[in-house]
Queue: 3 jobs
Job 1
Amino acid sequence: MVQNDKAAAWVEEMAALCQPDQVVWCDGSDEEKERFYELSLKTGEFQRLDQEKLPGCYYHRSAQNDVARTEHLTFICTPTEREAGPTNNWMAPDAAYEKLRALFNGCMKGRTMYVIPFIMGPPGSPFCEVGIQLTDSLYVVQNMRMMTRMGNVALEQLRTNGKFTECLHSNGELDIDRRYICHFPQDNRIWSFGSGYGGNALLGKKCLSLRIASYLGRKEQWMAEHMLILGVEDPQGNTSYIAAAFPSACGKTNLAMLIPPDSMPGYKVYTVGDDIAWLRVGPDGRLWAINPEAGFFGVLPGTSMKTNPNAMLTMKKNTIFTNVVKADDNTVWWEGMGVDPPAHGTDWKGDEWTPERGEKGAHPNSRFTAPAAQCPVMSSHWEDPQGVPISAIFFGGRRSHLTPLIYETLDWNHGTFVGATMGSETTAAATSASGVLRRDPMAMLPFCGYNMADYFHHWLEMGKRIPHPPKIFNVNWFKKDDEGNYLWPGFGDNLRALEWALKRCRDEVEGTETPIGRLPRAQELNLSGLDLPGDTVEQLLTVDPDAWLEEVEGIEEFFQKFGDDLPQEFRDQAENLKRRLKAQEKIPVS
Ligand code: SAT
Ligand code: MN
């Protein structure tokens, strides 16, 4: 094994604190994977599924109070509260260390401490970051094995990088009153106690790849974003790459694995990533992106051969299913899977379950974990060390009325403003009332590891450093008519909007200027095979100045949160938008 004195000393220090019965370094081998699954059957952390129907697949049930990220227990621990900013929970580092040290003290007595060296990003990539996670959960180990490149490969990479993010995790008692997810950006350290759930416990994911990485990115002039990455190959064989940020419940994984409609022959879509993008300026002056992850951690309910066949095919083998129905024949089922439910099984809580009982069998946030390499449409470039060049960035949300299907922003700064002000209406699935607009800048609200106003400045600064920046677009797949019906079919047909955007990038279409940005002319959108009535298209491409003036008021109210730290550029953008809106009546689209 590759030795690293700093790593060894830190592991020893943390072991002295947590007092496990033993410390086991993970090597990342297949042999180890099998051995750990065997062990986990005994500890009860996993159950083995039918190995003929679902080879290499395992089932896990979480504690009932531990099914999602707990944002109110997630803290950014910077020396001053200002550094964490108005949108994060803040704790002073000394206080956080003291509080968590008491929780970690002796917490692994009778347990094993697993040491997981891991890398985010392809090995040898200039993008890649090393982390070492300590955990007492085999569920976490087996998930990290898929979501990251882990084991000896990471210790090799540590020789090059020299530094690593210290990630300490314990399930503790899975007690919500003794649960904290603390980030110490200045110390390059994460301490997470009391939860085994993905985003709280797989510390390479949101904690390192977004919160810590966003902090590092600002220091080192790169960007860590909550974005999917995909490649679109056109019928001529040219592939362009896009990155897109959407708040949750807007179909990010579906878009990342999109299947082109039959009426767009010759188009292919390739997945590079479904959740996180790291972006750097390349030697050619363009923005290049990697997916730092190596697996998918996706929502199951609603995922079917109809809504996302590529996700379904990805999880045919070597997959962990968490909190779904386990049928008596050792297969799995969830609501919206598109197949008949089993006659009898156990639900996500472990209770006996039959479809007749009328209760949901899978938790709404039940998940699959699967290796990205198993996705049938994974891009052949998804592990390129330099990443892929980004032609266009998309922001979007769920807006039933205001926002048109797609518009192009005026330039990088305007695009940054549009990303910073994006919002989404809550769905019935969320706990709070349906249809409430929630602003979620760049879909990073829960994931920015420092003051979000500084993050806005960083975006604007990056714009100055990218000689050939991507164009920035806003999309909305969720516009409704007055009766509440969706105007746009969504799913594979979203490619029609992407096609228009990529044509704009190549200057092949002109669009039409409106106060909010450039919209497609109806005839520029490929609508063949869709059969959309003309007035539907018109509604999809309408800009209502009065409604937008109201929107600007909402934006300005949102901006108040950031006080004087808000970039002056954003105030100017809001003023300019108002001026353009007032100067123009409703824009007829030809
Ligand atoms: O657990 S994750 O944070 O990765 C997924 C989510 O809750 O958005
Ligand atoms: Mn996400």
Job 2
Amino acid sequence: MKYFIEVWGCQMNEHDAETLSGIIEERGYSKAENYLDADLILLHTCCIRAKAEDKVIGRIGVLSKLKKKKKHLIIAVGGCMTQQEDVARYIEKRFKEVDIIYGTHNLNEFASLLESAKADQKQIKAVSDSEGMDIREYVPIKRNDKLKAYVNIIYGCNNFCSYCIVPYVRGREKSREIKYIIQEVKELLDQGFKDITLLGQNVNSYGKDFKDGTNFAKLLKELDVLGDYRLRFMSSHPRDFDEALIDVIKDSKNVCHQIHLPLQSGSDKIIKEMNRGYTKKHYLDLTEYIYKVLPEATISTDIIVGFPGETEEDFQDTLDVVEKVGYDQAYMFQYSIREGTRAAKMTEQIPEAIKKERFQRLLELQNKKSLERNNKMIGKIVEVLVEGFGERNNLTGRTSGNKVVNFKGDKKLTGKLVWVGITDANTWSLFGKVKGE
Ligand code: SAH
Ligand code: SF4
Ligand code: F3S
């Protein structure tokens, strides 16, 4: 029996899909190369923007047709999108071909849902509330990579940024016990993993729910001593990210000087309406301190354009921050109304044409900045973790700051750290030569 998973959304979703793969493989399935070869297909969904949801509905349509020809095919749809009651109900009614509808808090039951779906032809829906759910440890995980691994440290989100659906579909913040995180990282290092990313919607909230003084800085310090490897984390919240944490990073051996610090908007008025809890000045001071203490740091961000009430002047504030910080990379989005959030009810929604036009201007500025930042790397010698062959017979790997580097070399270097002299750059990646060659 073969299975196939299609995943949308963030790293947390990707990692959840690895957990689902582990659970499914324990039931005797193996991964199909192509969805057409699979006996079980999962759509593990995201609902952060309308576009993400539209794509999934399109895919369910395609798979429903496939099932008419392939009667034994089992179709499962779940994750953030189906955690919304109305969406789960819509899929349940509209697509009878979908066998399993599961929520974000029901991954650990997936094996039994699968058994029931196989036993009788009835559609099953399992969407639970997050309250009262405990974190399950020791779940099998089938990882997609042999070098890079994700480790969850905190689930859910309490921030309720006014545009965002995540707190509604992922529930309240729940930190994972420090001993299990340490144990997982130790096991990964024993298995040869070299690059570990700690995941959470707001990693800086780690430990607050334990109310015993545990915090993110403490976790980083404990993980730092476990070996020689690259340790990353995302996302940070500019409200909770502070100078003390930047100092911890500086004093650490393994924590990469790579910081993802979502700005969302540069306008104080919009930041407030977004319920983000910082100011443009606070944000700029933080990034200034990062560059002062960690001069080689790479900084990336998330930005939304066209939030309700955003004027040209507000947008200029966003461009101003992009200009001043000089991000290595930015994930940029046009505001998308999410029913049930506070911003959905705001009256001053921005016309699509204006959102598009602002997005284009932002994209142009950011591309210019990315190229400037990459060009600055030319002439430097950087340590690259080699991931294998990429395009045009080049080896590809990443710097500690997470920049992609392409260079000629032997496949045997895969999984190794090598020193590469940077000779050229474009907006998205660097090119170089292995030192000594
Ligand atoms: N927890 C992370 C981000 C999760 S969602 C954080 O706070 O940084 C990833 C990004 O999607 C957000 O940072 C935001 O930029 C974007 N996003 C969230 N809701 C959105 C919406 N309604 N419309 C457009 N972009 C959105
Ligand atoms: Fe959404 Fe804000 Fe939570 Fe990030 S911090 S997941 S943007 S509510
Ligand atoms: Fe999407 Fe859910 Fe992540 S809504 S961005 S998959 S937490």
Job 3
Amino acid sequence: MDKVLARGSGSTTARSRPRTAVVSILAGGAAVAATIAVATSASAGTTLGTSAAEQGRYFGTAVAVNKLSDATYVGILNREFNMVTAENEMKWDATEPSQNQFNYSSSDRLVAHAQANGMRVRGHALAWHQQQPGWTQGLSGTALRNAMVNHITQVATHFKGKIHSWDVVNEAFDDGNGGRRDSNLQRTGNDWIEVAFRTARAADPGAKLCYNDYNTDNWTWAKTQGVYNMVKDFKARGVPIDCVGFQSHFNSGSPYPGNYRTTLQNFADLGVDVQITELDIEGSGSTQATTYGNVVKDCLAVARCNGITVWGIRDSDSWRASGTPLLFDGNGNKKAAYTSTLNALNAGGTTPPTTTPPTTTPPTTTPPTTAPPTTAPPTTAPPTTPPPAGACTATLSTNQWQGGFVTNVRVTAGGSPLNGWSVSLTLPSGSAVTNAWSAQSSGTNGLVTFRNVDYNRQVPAGGTTEFGFQGTGTAPSGTVSCTAG
Ligand code: XIL
């Protein structure tokens, strides 16, 4: 047993000896150890979801909505998981089968199931070169770009307030060279990814916005570096990205890398959350169990690793069923991989989790459904709000495509703090603002003014805040005025 475990561990990871040894022991005593741990430890969670929650994380699964009538499937889903991803039902071909005709029947069913059972939802995926409807194949250039913007706007608006994190763009990088993958979306212009993110932010400011990909787990791979550089660039330029998803479909051709934790940490250090979004690990027995445990430990070791989602429940539910890559066997029984996963979750991490909301947008608050009570005016004087202070400047960064644009505006306070601000600019004739985020806009043509909203009213001296808007026609350029107060 020990020899088998040692060999299994060695072939799947290049980690340090002490760590491998611990994992091997856990995996070796899998079934018994789990029973004892659960029975004797008051603080240890007994399901994946509760254990992850104790670490400030979620544990999710992909769900195929047509399996919600399978009692075994639903039983495991409701017992173990507190996050769901639609395996196929929120993809472009499912949600917009004909142009501008949206179908949410299956995806709404999943969201309703999640909400009824206290689970959250990852949205997957707004823009992807695969599983597009047929009609997009006949489009290119501006027509396809506008179709993408419309798709993202409509779908993200439909689910607004219900999505924890969106995979805004999926699999946009080439496997070999670290550059972009050729696709119809890529051919609309290299800025398609940032336009997708800005559009998603405008539609649902409360959702975390993720870039999601596979073969980005190994820090030394060119593709990992390509995605890393894009995220770094987005953060530097204020493109609204909050998280990076690592699909982590592991098998012999794309094995779990010993530097996985390094990869997660390096991305997190860019100022984004990291999430393991489609985990499956082909194999069986203790080798597979050890790798699952290692993946969990890596996530828990990175403060900004929010959670883990496995890509299906039972092996028989997997898109790669022959590789038996999941945590439950075809009969719904817990595998050794389940036990090592649960044990790793219960063992906890080395750093506390952080919860970081999107950085540039306000939280979505549900408006009160009842009228506010009419209360007598306060008898004491209201707090005196400080007078408007300081000057400000505003700079624009724009993504223009034929027929439309998205502009991001950075407001910078001068030597004194701001308590309110407004930015005015003149649109070229024929252009119009269609929506704005993180600011209240007045006017759609000609002279347009954007005023702070509540959460970004105050800006410390020298500090910045950002808002954005989307429009048709040509983006504004040139003079922008920023006024304090
Ligand atoms: C897969 C689904 O699991 C299958 O049911 C479907 O036939 C094809 O897509 N990367 C992704 C997922 O982002 O959407 C894919 O899901 C798996 C690879």
